Amino acid sequence: MKFMPVPSQEDFRKIAIDFYEIWNFPNCVGALDGKHIRMHCPNNSGSMYFNYKGFFSIVLQALVDANYKFINIDVGGYGKQSDGGTFQASALYKKLTTQTLNLPGDTAFPNSDLIMPHVIIADEAYPLMKHLLKPYRKQELNADKEYFNKRLSCARRTVECAFGILRSKWQILDKPILTHPGHADNIIKAICILHNVIIDKEGIEHNLKETQFVFQNENRQAPAGRLNNEAKVVRDNFKAYLCNNP
């Protein structure tokens, strides 16, 4: 996208520094989540756009930096898809799995000799991958895993806040969008680009003060399937580091 270019390795390094300095989470290059954007049911679309919340929507998947700015978006997923399903159909997923996302090389944690990959953080709806961390499941929690989940959740609020700022700034998102899905995609992309411009011009604090946003637990279901062993080791190492460096 011309006005939201793919971050370079150096861009991702700077984002990782910001996540550590602002949110105390190392080697993190973005927080990922999806938002359902209301729209009227398109003609001849059946239930494709009808989501689990009970309304018609298209999905905005967004990767957000430590300062609430969008660095990667994917717009137009069918409302019936889960966040995990939307992710696995996205260009971001393809770039992660083919190692073409411009991520920096593995780097030691601050004040540590442990070399670890750079990661994206997400909620339980997403698959656990080497470069994508999600919380531990409730049924396997102990004190250390619960602490890891809290630290991840705190850092991941950047994407939730970004969605909250969008909602407070753009009244078109308060009601179903009355246009063809393709046109709606372009409207949402434009809003995300303007969001970044406003953050740059007005600063973060001003926009957060104007945002009335309640964090919601939407009881999303975790994707089925076995967890990748390499990804499990990566998450366990992040957990150990965070527990030893509160």
Written description of the protein model:
This protein has 246 residues and is of the alpha/beta class. The protein has one domain. 40% of the residues lie in helices and 15% in strands. The protein is built from seven helices and seven strands; from the N terminus they run H-E-E-E-H-H-E-E-E-E-H-H-H-H. It has helices at residues 9-23, 83-88, 91-97, 143-169, 181-202, 204-209, 229-244, and strands at 28-38, 57-64, 70-78, 107-108, 115-116, 119-121, 132-133. A five-stranded mixed sheet has the order 3-2-1-6-7. Strands 4-5 form a two-stranded antiparallel ribbon. A hairpin with a 5-residue loop joins strand 2 (57-64) and strand 3 (70-78). Helix 4 (143-169) packs across helix 7. Residues 213-225 have low confidence and may be disordered.
Tags for this model:
two-stranded antiparallel ribbon; 246 residues; 7 helices; 7 strands; alpha/beta; five-stranded mixed sheet
Can you lay out the helices and strands and say which pair or pack?
Blueprint: H1 9-23, E1 28-38, E2 57-64, E3 70-78, H2 83-88, H3 91-97, E4 107-108, E5 115-116, E6 119-121, E7 132-133, H4 143-169, H5 181-202, H6 204-209, H7 229-244
Parallel strand pairs: 1-6, 6-7
Antiparallel strand pairs: 1-2, 2-3, 4-5
Helix pairs in contact: 4-7
Helix content: 40-55%
**What is the strand content?**
15-25%
The major β-sheet equals: 5 strands, mixed
The H-and-E topology, N to C, reads as HEEEHHEEEEHHHH
Structural class: alpha/beta
Total discrete domains: 1
Instruction: Average the pLDDT over all residues and give the rounded result.
Output: 86
Count the E strands.
Answer: 7
Shape: globular
Oligomer: single chain
> How far do the termini sit from each other?
38 Å
Low confidence ranges: 213-225
- Calculate Rg over CA atoms: 18 Å
What topology, given as strand order, has the largest sheet? 3-2-1-6-7
Number of helices: 7
